[in-house]
Design brief:
Blueprint: H1 11-27, H2 34-40, H3 45-56, H4 60-78, H5 83-89, H6 95-106, H7 110-118, H8 126-132
Helix pairs in contact: 1-4, 2-3
Length: 147
């Protein structure tokens, strides 16, 4: 099996799944749902979800959340928008959901992440920040560990 885990996904289906992934990358800030994504490539939502997970190791929804949180981290580092503005700019419709997803993926709340940026905790070259601080789905953060 390859590192991506897509040895069991037919090539024709991989082409369609790549279209879905590219669409998520382009339209992460818009309201997207699995049914709409699936309809765009003439698949059922279930078939899309199974194929996407087989090809990319996570569901389309998880991939979308990761993209949104990556973008929000970049906007927080930029420093010119409030957390609320960032929440809506990356496609969330609820500040509570945004904060919960951000904390799950990053291990810090958006405000604590912003405080770390202000304190210089994230003053690294952009390519390092992007690779080292990339949100990792279901990362376990030990209790009491601020990072």
């Amino acid at each position: 099996m390859s590192a991506s885990g897509n040895d069991h996904v037919p090539v024709q289906q991989l082409v369609l799944l790549r279209r879905v992934r590219d669409r998520i990358d382009r339209e992460f800030d818009r309201p997207l749902n699995v049914e709409e994504l699936a309809a765009g490539v003439y698949m059922s939502a279930g078939h899309l979800s199974r194929g996407f997970r087989a090809a990319y190791g996570e569901s389309p929804y998880s991939y979308l959340m990761t993209r949104r949180i990556e973008r929000s981290m970049a906007l927080i580092r930029r420093g010119d928008l409030s957390i609320t503005d960032i929440c809506f700019a990356v496609g969330f419709s609820s500040l509570g959901t945004f904060s919960t997803r951000f904390s799950e993926l990053v291990g810090l709340s958006p405000s604590r992440y912003r405080d770390g940026v202000v304190d210089g905790d994230h003053d690294l070259p952009t390519f390092i920040v992007k690779n080292v601080l990339r949100p990792v789905r279901n990362r376990e953060v030990p209790p009491g560990d601020p990072h």
